[in-house]
Design a protein that fits this description.
The structure is a homotetramer of 213-residue chains.
Chain A lengths: L1 E7 L9 H7 L4 E2 L2 E8 L3 H15 L3 E7 L7 E2 L2 E3 L2 E2 L11 E3 L8 E3 L4 H10 L14 H15 L5 E7 L3 H4 L10 H17 L13
Parallel strand pairs in A: 1-3, 1-4, 4-10
Antiparallel strand pairs in A: 2-3, 5-10, 6-9, 7-8
């Protein structure tokens, strides 16, 4: 089995992106699972073509995209991608789409097809701060997540796919008073566990990890 | 024009629900808009039948459901409802569905059809803390919001619909250390402004109010 | 008995100060307690002379100074004032003292002489979000609190004194994403309760309201 | 030169204490500075005798005590210790003193004699999240910090002393939803930098690191 894992370029004034730094530290194999990685531009227009090219080149069984979530304390496997672009800040190419669909003909949302509940339990068991998230935002992260799942649905691709948001690195939080952070090794370990769980099982556990509001 | 506005019963150990307290303080008219209100049970099974009965009885032009979001600082008009029930705690009838759909045959999500961006600008202009939210959670609030929009879509109902989460009341926060809160009068004022904006305009403004993550 | 209550001018780019707005709404009497109020400039040099002049003019039994704490969710009666000025931003006269003492010959700190534990219990009983705070910061609020208690100690003044921080008003939080806030009426009610408790009792209750860290 | 560094036993239901875990990872030397470490019980009565015995045994030039602050995102060198015990929870020996002095004859507070501003700048430069804190709470951490400085003052000890709070470890935050955390290696690196700066300089930098409230 093969997993394709992506991380983003720095954006929003940052000089690093924790997702890319963590992805770069992944091993080439996790047990039997081959791991290949891909850097994605933090831009609406350029991100999906690069993701799709990597998918076509690698023909993966699992695709996990990762991105930065600066205000979060926890690793955040995402449950759902929504069909909207609503950019509070310009992306790395200067684009700032507002209330535009990711895919004109796409459904309102896609749910992840990775076993995120099982992965959350395994990560928590391993001592990692983690929680299922019910919103990937409305910027490039959600755009890539939606675009990934739309590709899977419309091309009848065989891979299972998902997205995980990760906190700032300590070196980023050093410049943002009160911002939480997580060491790159901790983030990378979380990604590895999620991948290992996804390689082991195709269906998810049914355990409560919802949000009251 | 007529608006139907709902609030929930207390749940989760609380003795009041800020949504219901605020809805009870709404005037019977806002300009030309007639306002009718309905209490909903905080329970998966019982909530939608009561909502649907009220819709059929009142035949409203606008339906706004409101609910409690204990950790929020702001009034939170919701952008999207998702087709999932994932209850971290039991509802008021003891049910705790996990990873069950709201509507077996429904789409993954519905977007609000109320002009929430225009309403956010008007509320902020009026000095209210407010932000568009991209997740209504996975408990009874999201369930009711999804069920509302599913009814509108499948019955080809003429109303426009949406949901707003509201913070704890001060008397609730008094028992939850560090919890933010909002006075019932402030919440009620926010609901009034949202209703007035929805009565005035059917299409929304295109202004950036998105979330990076 | 007579209480002198102060609030500050707006500072730090704000156009209102919740402490001053709340103090302006206080009644002239609370039971037998006469209430007089005083506006203080948000400036190190100018604040204490105005406070001391008001004390000498009014000869109060109780002095309560109040100030804005923008990130707090709760009314925060302060336990202790420390002998330091360390200004992160310039005050309203452009001064920005760093690591300078409030009183060259003063002790490291003063504890409040108001019954803040009893007041916290009474406010909580009345449904107000409230907690004892163990730091009034290092800006003009702490400066005034320290200066108040230093005056009491060195002049052997008969009044009992203290300080309470209060959250932003909603109209301020409207311009600060995610910032908590509190209605001016709620803040004013908290001040009234604190004053009433201070008028009733000179010694405090011994109940745990400490902070682990 | 020699530094004595202390960390606490786990308390409050935790099975590890980040301060102790980090202190255990310190090297025996940092440049010319010899580093010796000491575990302290998380108990009012037992902690200071053990600290004083270690001081007398080691005769250090620098004493840095460290402790856990579960809600913080940042390394927090403390500015001031106050003369109060106010325990929200029982300590590890079951004691829960409320509004009792640490030292009956001591002053209201002591300021640290370590160069915390210089250390904050050096840690931030090294990419660590850090901020000066103006309250060490009112539990055993503040008790030990106050007791340390009281010993220095009353015994005319030659050491300079201080305290730093540190966040939860990730494995602790895994069990506390939304709690921030920091890797033990990051915490240990922060302690090393603080010690190196304290060994290099006896006076502090005068730079603004205050809190508005």
């Amino acid at each position: 089995m093969k997993a394709l894992v992506t991380g983003f370029d720095p954006f929003g004034g940052e000089v690093v992106n924790p997702s890319l730094e963590a992805v770069r530290r992944l091993p080439a194999r996790i047990g039997e699972l081959i791991v290949v990685t891909q850097r994605l531009p933090a831009a609406f227009a350029a991100s999906l073509p690069e993701l799709y090219a990597a998918i076509e080149r690698e023909d993966p069984d699992i695709v996990l995209c990762t991105g930065e979530a600066g205000s979060r304390t926890e690793l955040s496997p995402e449950r759902v991608a929504i069909n909207v672009q609503d950019a509070r800040i310009p992306d790395n190419e200067g684009a700032q789409p507002v209330d535009v669909k990711v895919a004109e003909d796409g459904p309102a949302a896609y749910f992840t097809t990775l076993p995120i509940k099982a992965a959350v339990l395994a990560m928590r068991q391993a001592g990692l701060p983690v929680a299922v998230s019910n919103s990937a935002g409305t910027f490039v992260c959600n755009h890539v997540f939606y675009g990934l799942m739309h590709y899977a649905a419309t091309r009848k691709a065989r891979f299972r796919g998902g997205f995980m948001h990760v906190p700032y690195l300590p070196e980023q939080a050093a410049n943002h008073p009160k911002a939480p952070s997580m060491a790159v090794e901790t983030i990378a370990r979380g990604i590895e566990i999620l991948l290992a769980v996804a390689a082991e099982r195709s269906t998810d556990l049914v355990v409560a990890e919802g949000a009251v509001s």
